[in-house]
Amino acid sequence: MAILDSKVPKGPIKDKWTTYKDKINLVNPANKRNIDIIVVGTGLAGGSAAATLAELGYNVKAFAYQDSPRRAHSIAAQGGINAAKNYMGDGDSNYRLFYDTVKGGDYRSREANVYRLAEVSGNIIDQCVAQGVPFARDYGGLLDNRSFGGVLVSRTFYAKGQTGQQLLLGAYSAMNRQIARGKITMYNRHEMLDVVKVDGKARGIITRNLITGEIERHSAHAVVIASGGYGNVYFLSTNAMGSNATAAWKIHKKGAFFANPCFTQIHPTCIPRSGDYQSKLTLMSESLRNDGRIWVPARIEDAKAIQQGKLKPTEIAEENRDYYLERRYPAFGNLVPRDVASRAAKERCDAGYGVNATGEAVYLDFAYAFKRYGTEQAKIHGIKNPSEAEIIKLGQAIIEEKYGNLFQMYEKIIAENPYETPMMIYPATHYTMGGVWVDYNLMTTVPGLYCIGEANFSDHGANRLGASALMQGLADGYFVLPYTIGDYLSDDIRTGKIPTDSPEFEAVEKEVKEQLDFFINNKGTKSVDYFHKKLGKIMWDKVGMARNEKHLKEAIAEIKQVREDFWKEVKVPGALNEMNVELEKAGRVADFLELGELFALDALNRKESCGGHFRDESVEQSGPQKGEALRDDINYKYVSAWEYKGKPSEAVLHKEQLEFNDIELKTRSYK
Amino acid sequence: MMNLTLKIWRQKDANDKGQMVDYKVTDISEHMSFLEMMDVLNEQLVNSGDQPVAFDHDCREGICGMCSLYINGEAHGPDRGITTCQLHMRMFNDGDTITIEPWRASAFPVIKDLIVDRMSFERIQQAGGFISVNTSGNTQDANAIPISKHAADEAMDAAACIGCGACVATCKNSSAMLFVGAKVSQYALLPQGQVEAADRVKNMVEQMDLEGFGNCTNTGACEIECPKGISLENIARMNREFLSASLKG
Question: Within this chain, do residues B72 and B126 fall inside the same structural domain, yes or no?
Answer without folding.
Answer: no
